[in-house]
Amino acid sequence: MKDGLEGVIACETKISRIELVDGKGILEYRGYDIRDLARKSSYEEVAYLLLYGELPKRYELQDFKIELAERRELPPQIIGLLTHLPPYTHPMVVLRTSTSYLGSLDKKIDVKTREENLNKAKNLIAKFPTIIAYYHRIRTGKNVIPPTLELGHAANFLYMLSGEEPSRTAERALDMDLILHAEHELNASTFAARIAASTLADMYACIVAATGTLMGPLHGGAAQEVMKMLREVASPRRAEEYVKKKIEKGERIMGFGHRVYRGIIDPRAELLKRLAKKLSMEGVPRWFEISEAIAKAAYRYKRLLPNVDFYSASVYANLGIPDDLFINIFAMGRIAGWTAHVIEQYENNRLIRPRAKYVGDKDKKYKPLTER
Ligand code: SDX
Asked: Does 309 qualify as catalytic in the annotation?
């Protein structure tokens, strides 16, 4: 038995497929290759695909986009929460807390019909960006910028964050990033959501479990750590020395390695690398240049290859997103996959309850306090 359930098939799913074929990573959402979706689709269309299982027809996509846009605004109680949380609260703790609060406002919290599950999913997909943008504006002493119905999902987030409509390049970059973060089979946070769903806990409880799990630096928290590393390295010339020292000390290089893409590059990292390079040519080149120098050294000294979080850091930095919001952007993408998995678990459920191999002491005789 390998630690960390490595290689264990814990359930069946129709939502996404990860396979290593001839040394290449294949990632498909509902059978569609991520490379096609990243280049040709939109986050709204991918969220529809993940939730409903098929690409939408034109009118279905139009209706879905309107449905999401109309759900973006937050209830006043949530806005109140955002103004009362301490300004040093990590934005992921804010997202987790707000998700739980949204549940307490939902009179149908325990209704699990397909229609109600999809309703909750659309609410969360639509409201995650607003929670994040509102909290950032409030903690930096700025007025919140209400969502607009006119802009798409990605563009509306950047607009609520900065107050300006983003460039087409920035909108397309964030949209592609959200598509690439939308779903990834049974990663730790999705598995946490499915375990909660298998007990028939409500959708909000499942997403709180997922949001809490994503925060760890070995999972979604890596992107923020990558940015810290880029700032520490500060110049491409210092990358090799930095990487060599970290590896000699047996430390992890954040943004590298993957449980499933063992020894091959994460297909999402390849797409994000191109995106990061494009943005860097129009923005701040140094983050991408430092990233490239680190990637070369990480491969040279330990054959390490980047994962989805590595180039995300320079993408987000060039989009003007603050470092501690990086995990939130990951969650803004993954909320579509999480809710799709919760619904799939509900619809074909059996309690998830594995066993543990006991390795402790056995058959010990109880001693009263006087004899211990
Ligand atoms: C995500 O599961 C998913 O799908 C997750 C995700 C998703 O979309 O949901 O893809 C998103 O979480 C990506 C991963 C982000 N995390 C990081 O970038 C943190 C740094 N990465 C590592 O900690 C590690 O690679 C993991 C946690 C991602 C995977 O860990 P594993 O599968 O348990 O691998 P391991 O720890 O057994 O390492 C195997 C070998 C070891 O070498 P030896 O000690 O055997 O000589 O590879 C080495 C490790 O030391 N190694 C690394 C490394 N990753 C693996 N060495 C240095 N730096 C690294 N990043």
From this structure: yes
CB 47, CB 126: distance < 8 Å: no
Terminal alpha carbon distance of the chain: 37
What whole-number distance in Å separates Cα of residue 322 and Cα of residue 99?
21
| Across 27-33, average pLDDT | 98
**Partners of 20 in the β-ladder:** 25
Report the C-alpha gap between 352 and 103 in whole angstroms.
23
User: β-pairing, 24-29 with 16-21?
Assistant: antiparallel
Mean pLDDT value across residues 276-283? 93
Whether residue 297 sits in one domain with residue 179: no
Q: State the distance from the centre of ligand 1 to the C-alpha of 304, rounded, in angstroms.
A: 9
| 306 close to 178: Cβ distance less than 8 angstroms | no
pLDDT, residue 2, reads: 87
5 in a domain, yes or no? Answer: no
Both tokens of 283, joined, read 């923005």
Q: Is 8 within the bounds of a domain?
A: no
Residue pair 314/233 in contact by the 8 Å Cβ criterion: no
pTM of the model: 0.97
Is the dihedral angle over the CA atoms 79, 85, 88, 93 positive or is it negative? negative
In a domain, 2, yes or no: no
Count the domains in the chain: 2
| Nearest protein CA to atom 40 of ligand 1, as residue | 257
Do 301 and 244 meet the contact criterion of CB atoms below 8 Å apart? Answer: yes
Give the CATH number for residue 174.
Answer: 1.10.580.10
Asked whether 173 and 158 are in contact (CB, 8 A), the reply is: no
Residue 96 CA, ligand 1 centroid: distance in Å: 25
Would you call 258 a catalytic residue per the annotation?
yes
Mean pLDDT of the chain: 97
In a domain, 353, yes or no: no
Structural domain span for residue 105: 14-215+323-347
One domain for residues 153 and 232? no
